[in-house]
Write a structure and sequence with these properties.
The complex is a heterotrimer of chains A (263), B (393) and C (277).
Chain A (H helix, E strand, L loop, with lengths): L1 H27 L17 H7 L2 H32 L4 H12 L6 H12 L8 H25 L3 H9 L4 H30 L2 H6 L7 H11 L4 H30 L4
Helix pairs in contact in A: 1-11, 2-11, 3-6, 3-8, 3-10, 6-8, 7-8, 8-11
Chain B lengths: L25 H7 L9 E8 L7 E8 L4 E5 L6 H9 L6 E6 L2 E2 L11 E3 L11 H11 L4 H14 L15 H13 L5 E5 L7 H18 L2 E6 L2 H7 L2 E6 L2 E6 L1 H6 L4 H6 L4 E11 L2 E6 L2 E6 L9 E6 L5 E2 L8 E13 L3 E8 L4 E7 L12 E7 L4 E2 L1
Parallel strand pairs in B: 3-8, 3-9, 6-7, 7-8
Antiparallel strand pairs in B: 1-2, 1-4, 4-5, 9-10, 11-12, 11-14, 12-13, 14-20, 15-19, 16-17, 16-19, 17-18
Chain C lengths: L4 H27 L10 H6 L3 H34 L2 H16 L2 H12 L4 H8 L13 H25 L3 H9 L4 H29 L3 H6 L7 H10 L3 H23 L2 H11 L1
Helix pairs in contact in C: 3-4, 3-7, 3-9, 4-7, 5-7, 7-9, 7-13, 8-9, 9-12, 9-13, 11-12
Classes of the chains: A mainly alpha (263), B alpha+beta (393), C mainly alpha (277).
Chain lengths: 263, 393, 277
């Protein structure tokens, strides 16, 4: 069974490769040193204090949260409506609209970024939170539409038919049957929209100017000059946020599975 | 199996309230007074539904009588479910008309047709409890919460599911889900109940029990049932009449006895029960019986159709109507010589696989308790059957 | 029954939004490549002899190729293990794969800056082990770009392969073993051929994403290892819009060419599903 243990060592190494950098960043953020050194001389929360004590970092954090929150509202409502409509469309119309909505997933980020910058600059949207919200929504929408569409595809159409046959009007059917059953999908879409906006950097690099510096943008600026461990602290917080959201998505997915359990 | 499906609504005082007069039909109110609800009559007139794939309907005309238990029976893809969906209003026919109690319902959306429906796999709302599922149609009709709670409790009691109010569908067994679905479909007093293979997902034992429950429910409620199934045994057991469908058309409509004893064509003869088919040539007609030549042997058959002399026909005979000749043959019986190929013991009967001298194969069923001697493979014998039991298909 | 009009009304808001804030801006920017100042295809003709463009394109393609190969070699075994593990262990492995997937590209690129820097963890380890006398130049090299991008794109390779492997009927493997196939043969004759759709989907996904990478090469790469997206950004900074638009069309064309193949694969939809759930 040498082959089997070689295989096990190999894929475990690959997993270590995946996890290691993230673990290191997290460990480093608790370093007491003022410069990146290994191993850290001692541990402490010095850099988290530095983060929390910095007006600039906090402003960027709040801006990122505000922008991502607005993106969630716009992208989730527009995306959910569109997914509900797409479900009943067929043929060329569906293909064309589907391609338009999903294309930001595959068009290179830089092309989207400079295209939006090219036009938004003319409308003085550069350096404004509004510009960021408008642009990030385009990038977040495909995730909402995909997630809600998957939920709708898993929804047994007979449930809606049953509701209609029992005397529920189409709008009552939507409110009492369809919506509760696809809600987990909508929420997963909303989570994705949040993460997409919160982490977005390429479009932001062009749009944020000096007036709307988001958290990733501030990290980027800092990284180009000096690597100070504040970034490690910020990164760790972002990793924790990712983990929380990932867990949230997982829980929602379980709920979806339970809710749509084929009876 | 509990006799649980007695969902007669006569003792529900709530339905007498003026506030619910509007949503509940006049006939339902009569039911409150103790009478049965009068079932709706349904008339399908030349309805068609075109599809690229299977399940198309190509001109179905059918009259379902008030209070009748009618089954649409056919193989998958025969259009029976599509027909049901058109009655329910989920599909719109490309041609033809559907009338309930004499007036066309084509312009009515499903939620205004007031038809109860039990779906394949029940379509219970997974996010609602059993009580909320059953209360759903009442809620849509604006019945207040307290009344709803009482009605739901009463109906759950009647399906012997008291105490299951707070259970979610996934916490119920298949049979319990089925009964919740049934309770939900009739709690609002529809005069027509549609059922799409409602027992398909259950095991044989439970299915047979529920078939009987369903018959009893039909008798108690007095409303019209239209039932879709591909299971011929189920259709024969439960229905007043059966409409056999194949490839988008109704092939034959009749009582179970009609269909079994007098199938109108080979499809019905083979689909309902088991049939032996023999090729023969018509010689003539004599006292309402056809005289046929079957590979040199003269036999007689019922003259339901009137083929001309010299025409080739196919004769259908049920395996249990055949018996081995034991010296007591009457003149009214046909006789044909065969060789036994194989014998299979099947519990309630022995199945003999035989072939005639001309090579046609026949199956003969001999009841297990019969006094007849067992035949063995290779043995030659004569087979008899009453002339009236064979039909031309 | 939904009328014919309602579905259209539901998609109209998003469609208009995407046209106004995404499709039309991008299209009008791309138009600069042939309409500046008057209609011309000269910009494109010039690309063919543009040594900077050719060098950068070559570097972009080479990077994408190396990264794709790297993710495949590292990703396939993980996907295979993931499909074979029992429920609890599989969940742990999946979490380790998904956590980086959900972590910002910026954070992950930063992690590699920390690891590969002159005084980064790897140099410190090598120095203290006595293997080297002075710190190696690891950061700002093509190697750094490759390693960081492989790390970032690895989940995109693992997930489609794992989703295909998980669908392989276990009975098939037992049947093959029952017929006398050794584990090695069961893998090469049954598992490997059946996993091809997932592998192809993973390859194309990673390749397509690699072509457009910007953040990571900009942070960990050297000044001479330009990727197409970096060249485009540079040209925008120089306000050379026609050239930037022209390069964008080239990058988009490369991507779409691959997507045309990608879209035909059902496994790709499974990937999207895995990504959103």
């Amino acid at each position: 069974m040498i082959g089997r243990s070689v295989f096990a060592v190999y894929w475990l190494m690959a997993l270590v490769f995946l996890a290691f950098p993230i673990v290191i960043v997290a460990a480093l953020s608790f370093s007491s040193a003022s410069y990146l050194t290994f191993p850290p001389p001692a541990f402490g929360v010095r850099w988290y204090r530095a983060f929390l004590g910095s007006r600039e970092w906090l402003d960027s954090t709040w801006l990122s949260i505000a922008v991502a929150g607005s993106v969630v509202v716009v992208a989730t409502s527009l995306g959910t409506l569109a997914a509900l409509g797409l479900r009943h469309l067929t043929g060329a119309v569906r293909a064309a609209i589907g391609a338009l909505i999903l294309s930001p997933l595959i068009v290179p980020g830089i092309v989207v970024a400079i295209g939006i910058y090219y036009v938004f600059a003319a409308y003085r949207l550069v350096g404004t939170a509004l510009g960021l919200v408008l642009a990030h929504t385009c990038l977040a929408v495909p995730f909402v539409v995909t997630s809600v569409s998957v939920s709708l595809a898993g929804l047994d159409r007979r449930l809606e038919q049953a509701a209609l046959s029992l005397g529920a009007t189409p709008s009552a059917t939507f409110r009492q049957i369809t919506l509760p059953l696809i809600l987990p999908g909508i929420l997963v879409g909303a989570l994705f929209a949040f993460v997409t906006s919160f982490d977005e950097l390429i479009v932001t690099l062009f749009l944020s100017g000096s007036g709307a510096v988001t958290l990733p943008r501030r990290m980027w600026d800092d990284l180009r000059f000096a690597i100070d461990p504040t970034i490690a602290a910020v990164s760790t917080l972002m990793i924790v946020l990712s983990a929380v959201l990932l867990l949230g998505a997982h829980v929602l997915r379980q709920r979806q599975a339970t809710a749509q359990h084929k009876v | 199996m509990d006799p649980g499906l007695n969902l007669r609504l006569s003792s529900w005082p709530a339905l007498r309230r003026p506030s619910v007069v509007a949503p509940v039909s006049g006939d339902a109110r009569r039911a409150v007074g103790g009478d049965k609800t009068r079932g709706a009559s349904v008339a399908l007139c030349g309805i068609e539904k075109h599809y690229d794939s299977v399940g198309a309907v190509r001109g179905v005309s059918l009259d379902v009588r008030s209070g009748e238990f009618l089954t649409l029976l056919g193989p998958s893809g025969s259009g029976k479910t599509t027909t049901l969906m058109m009655i329910a209003g989920f599909e719109t026919p490309n041609a033809g008309d559907i009338a309930i109690d004499g007036s066309s319902v084509l312009a009515l959306p499903p939620y205004k047709r007031n038809i109860g429906m039990v779906f394949q796999n029940y379509a219970l709302f997974p996010h609602l409890t059993a009580a909320d599922n059953i209360g759903f149609p009442l809620k849509q009709r604006g019945i207040d919460r307290a009344t709803r709670t009482r009605l739901v409790a009463a109906s759950l009691e009647r399906v012997h599911l008291s105490g299951y109010e707070r259970r979610y569908p996934r916490q119920l067994s298949g049979g319990q889900q089925q009964r919740v679905a049934l309770a939900r479909a009739i709690v609002f007093h529809p005069r027509l109940l549609l059922m799409d293979e409602p027992l398909g997902a259950l095991d044989k034992q439970l299915r047979e029990n529920l078939q009987l429950e369903m018959r009893r429910l039909h008798a108690d409620l007095g409303i019209t049932f239209i039932y879709v199934t591909h299971d011929q045994e189920e259709a024969l057991t439960m229905s007043d009449r059966v409409a056999v469908m194949n490839e988008g058309v109704v092939v034959q409509v009749g009582t179970p006895e009609d269909l079994y004893d007098r199938p109108c064509n080979r499809f019905v003869a083979a689909f309902i029960g088991e049939s032996n088919f023999l090729s023969a040539v018509v010689r003539g007609i004599e006292r309402n019986m056809l005289i046929l030549d079957c590979a040199g042997t003269t036999i007689r058959a019922m003259a339901l159709q009137t083929p001309t002399a010299g025409e080739g026909v196919t004769l259908a005979i049920r395996p249990e109507r055949l018996r081995f000749a034991d010296g007591t043959a009457s003149m009214a019986e046909n006789r044909i010589a065969i060789t036994v190929t194989d014998m299979v013991f099947a519990g309630d009967c022995c199945r003999y696989l035989c072939h005639t001298d001309s090579g046609a194969s026949l199956v003969l069923k001999q009841p297990s308790g019969s006094t007849g001697r067992r035949r063995h493979p290779g043995e030659r014998a004569d087979i008899l059957w009453p002339a009236g039991d064979a039909v031309i298909v | 029954m939904p009328s014919r009009v309602t579905p259209i009304l539901l998609v109209v808001p998003l469609t208009l939004y995407m046209l106004a804030f995404y499709a039309l801006p991008v299209a009008s920017m791309l138009l600069r490549s042939i309409a500046d100042p008057s209609w011309t295809v000269e910009n494109y003709l010039r690309l063919a002899h543009d040594s900077v463009f050719l060098a950068v394109s070559w570097n972009t393609l080479r990077t994408a190729l190396v990264v794709t190969l790297g993710t495949l070699l590292l990703g396939y075994p993980v996907a295979l293990a993931l499909s074979r593990l029992r429920h609890g262990a599989a969940a742990v492995v999946l979490a380790i794969v998904l956590l980086p997937f959900w972590t910002s590209v910026l954070v992950r690129s930063y992690a590699w800056m920390v690891l590969l820097g002159r005084r980064g963890l790897i140099n410190e380890l090598l120095l203290s082990a006595g293997l080297i006398d002075s710190p190696l130049r690891l950061l700002n090299t093509p190697l750094a770009v490759h390693v960081a991008m492989i790390h970032i794109l690895l989940p995109y390779m693992i997930l489609p392969i794992a989703s295909v492997l998980r669908q392989i009927d276990r009975a098939l493997l037992r049947a093959a073993a029952g017929l006398g196939a050794s584990p090695r043969r069961v893998f090469s004759q049954v598992v490997l051929p059946l996993s091809v759709p997932g592998v192809v989907a993973g390859i194309l996904l990673v390749f397509v994403l690699s072509l457009g990478f910007y953040i990571t090469p900009a942070l960990v790469g050297g000044p001479r290892d330009l990727m197409l997206s970096m060249l485009i950004a540079q040209q925008v900074d120089l306000l050379n819009w026609p050239y930037a638009a022209c390069l964008s069309v080239a990058l988009l064309a490369m991507t779409l060419l691959l997507i045309l193949v990608l879209q035909r694969l059902p496994a790709v939809r499974a990937v999207l599903r895995a990504a959103t759930q």
